[in-house]
DNA sequence: TGAAATGTTGGGGCG
DNA sequence: ACGCCCCAACATTTC
């Protein structure tokens, strides 16, 4: 019987996994290779590694239950694969395709050397709804604007066909050694992850239950509720999707099924809004595939030399630690630190403050998110930071500067989100919660708030910094013409 | 997937 | 009854 190495990377699931499914008739050996590379520019951060640890644990349990065993190895992927091929006599390596520049470079290299040695290398689609080379404009160029991209995806029909799941697998010889998951040292040495356990269940089962709960509790109001951080109406599937614990096709399938069985009025429109967000994810991955330099350079070359600040460490630290003096910002940054995630609307607000009001380089924000988000994803992170900074695809125009007070009043009017994450302000009435520095002295006093003492004064003047940003962006735009 | 400035409208108070 | 002012509410424009 043919021996196949199924090399798991970011497809940590047994259902709708075409690579695994294609290998299931063979003597398949599931492998995970941990290849930490200190020099890699986008080495996985602490939060991401926390997730990976638990996701691998879940995958290993599932494989064990199916009669197989996850072989964990450490080291350079190509070398480890070579060694495993020698040890096992495997004739093929199957993988799910990845689309970020470093993975493409590594996989291309591996494919070439394996093929030269007569080893079959097969890659399968599964991480995306569409392959990046499938969705193109009439002139065969990649889309740079979302709306036409979305329309083309809709015309093509969002794919919802899923590959059958795997229940039983052949045993893996005990002669093949595996490292212990603990030996990968993916978990933090300092216990900053305590709250993560309350919020997440990494792994395929966790992904499925999150999807089911989202559909049951929030889909029918998604479009109306998704912008309000206190409502928790977003799907929170992003880390599960990032690690491939669930495929976007499974998500589309589940949504369509829910629509076919639901009688609630207006669900279709709400669900359409959710699928649109899923296609935004698709869009960011296609953009990164076609423009791999966007991990570190603006997509819009006009911004190549834009004078974003890269040094002001104190400013950056205040933002990172949620000590900016703007309650909605501080709530978001503290949510991020505590849970490894932040509500989407709040991500836009904090990013706008950093890149526009504070004039800091979008890469500094991207790097902090990269280290702290459990859903850190190179395509999404690069795209979205550039979007906010105004230098990316279909970007927010330079003059679109979020006012954290206005946004807060609009999207957290009753202050539930702020009070949850900024408890030192919790006794302030709603009227003063969004801009506490403007509250009358007696209100502050009776709420136990001392600005500059137990809650910081606002770190910048919103009006002034807004005008500065407008000027800088306008001058740069003019100079580039 | 903005905010702020500016313009317009219409209701109410008031002489 | 009328004009005038104020100003909130909404619309439009500009950055």
Task: Give me the secondary-structure topology.
Elements: E1 3-8, H1 18-23, E2 27-34, H2 46-65, E3 71-74, H3 77-88, E4 92-96, H4 101-116, E5 120-124, H5 146-156, H6 196-199, H7 204-217, H8 222-225, H9 238-242, H10 248-261, H11 267-290, H12 313-320, H13 327-339, H14 344-357, H15 362-372, H16 378-389, H17 404-411, H18 416-421, H19 430-433, H20 441-446, H21 462-480
Parallel strand pairs: 1-2, 1-4, 2-3, 4-5
Helix pairs in contact: 5-11, 10-11, 11-16, 13-14, 15-16
This protein binds a DNA duplex (15 and 15 nucleotides) through residues 227, 344-345, 348, 352, 387, 396-403, 406-407, 463, 466-467, 470, 473-474.
How would you summarize what this structure contains?
It contains 21 helices and five strands. By secondary structure, it is mostly helical.
**Radius of gyration, whole Å:** 24 Å
Gross geometry: globular
* Poorly predicted sequence stretches spanning 5 or more consecutive residues: none
Order of helices and strands: EHEHEHEHEHHHHHHHHHHHHHHHHH
CATH superfamily of the largest domain: DNA Cyclobutane Dipyrimidine Photolyase, subunit A, domain 3
Could you tell me the CATH topology label of the largest domain: DNA Cyclobutane Dipyrimidine Photolyase, subunit A, domain 3
Strand content: 5-15%
With strands numbered from the N-terminus, the spatial order across the biggest sheet is: 3-2-1-4-5
Instruction: Tell me the distance between the termini.
Output: 65 Å
Number of strands: 5
The helicity comes to 40-55%
- On the 0 to 100 scale, the average pLDDT is 96
Overall tally of structural domains: 3
Q: What structural category arises from helix and sheet content? A: mainly alpha
Largest sheet: 5 strands, parallel
H/I helix tally:
21
CATH class assignment of the largest domain: Mainly Alpha
The CATH architecture of the largest domain comes to Orthogonal Bundle
């Amino acid at each position: 019987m043919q021996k196949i190495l199924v090399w798991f990377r970011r497809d940590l699931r047994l259902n709708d996994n075409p690579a695994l499914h294609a290998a299931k008739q063979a003597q398949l050996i599931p492998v995970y290779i941990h290849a930490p590379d200190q020099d890699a520019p986008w080495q996985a951060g602490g939060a991401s590694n926390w997730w990976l640890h638990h996701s691998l644990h879940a995958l290993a349990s599932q494989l064990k239950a199916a009669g197989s065993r996850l072989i964990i190895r450490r080291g350079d992927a190509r070398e480890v694969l070579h060694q495993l091929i020698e040890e096992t006599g495997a004739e093929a390596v199957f993988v799910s395709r990845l689309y970020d520049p470093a993975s493409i470079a590594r996989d291309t290299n591996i494919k070439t050397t394996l093929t030269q040695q007569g080893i079959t290398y097969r890659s399968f689609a599964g991480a995306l709804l569409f392959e990046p080379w499938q969705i193109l404009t009439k002139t065969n160029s990649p889309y740079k604007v979302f709306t036409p991209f979305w329309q083309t995806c809709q015309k093509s029909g969002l794919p919802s066909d899923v590959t059958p799941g795997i229940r039983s697998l052949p045993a893996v010889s005990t002669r093949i050694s595996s490292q212990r998951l603990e030996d990968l040292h993916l978990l933090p040495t300092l216990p900053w992850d305590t709250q993560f356990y309350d919020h997440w269940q990494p792994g395929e089962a966790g992904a499925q239950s999150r999807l089911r709960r989202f559909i049951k509790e929030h889909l029918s109001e998604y479009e109306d509720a998704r912008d309000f951080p206190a409502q928790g109406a977003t799907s929170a599937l992003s880390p599960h999707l990032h690690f491939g614990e669930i495929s976007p096709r499974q998500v589309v399938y589940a949504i369509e099924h829910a629509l076919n069985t639901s009688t609630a009025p207006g669900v279709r429109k709400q669900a359409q809004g959710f699928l649109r967000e899923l296609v935004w994810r698709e869009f960011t991955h296609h953009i990164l595939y076609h423009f791999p330099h966007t991990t570190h350079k603006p997509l819009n070359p006009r911004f190549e030399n834009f004078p974003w600040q890269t040094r002001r460490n104190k400013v950056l630290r205040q933002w990172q630690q949620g000590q900016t003096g703007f309650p909605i910002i501080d709530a978001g940054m503290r949510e991020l630190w505590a849970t490894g995630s932040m509500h989407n609307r709040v991500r836009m607000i904090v990013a706008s403050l950093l890149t526009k009001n504070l004039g800091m380089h979008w890469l500094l924000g991207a790097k902090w998110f990269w280290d702290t988000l459990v859903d850190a994803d190179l395509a999404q992170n690069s795209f979205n930071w550039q979007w906010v900074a105004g230098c990316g695809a279909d970007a927010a125009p330079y003059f679109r500067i979020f006012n954290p007070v206005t946004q807060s009043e609009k999207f957290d009017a009753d202050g539930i989100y702020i009070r949850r994450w900024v408890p030192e302000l919790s006794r302030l009435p709603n009227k003063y919660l969004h801009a506490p520095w403007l509250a009358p002295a007696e209100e502050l006093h009776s709420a136990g708030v001392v600005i500059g003492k137990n809650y910081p004064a606002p770190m910048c003047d919103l009006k002034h910094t807004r005008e500065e940003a407008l000027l800088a962006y306008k001058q740069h735009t003019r100079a580039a013409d």
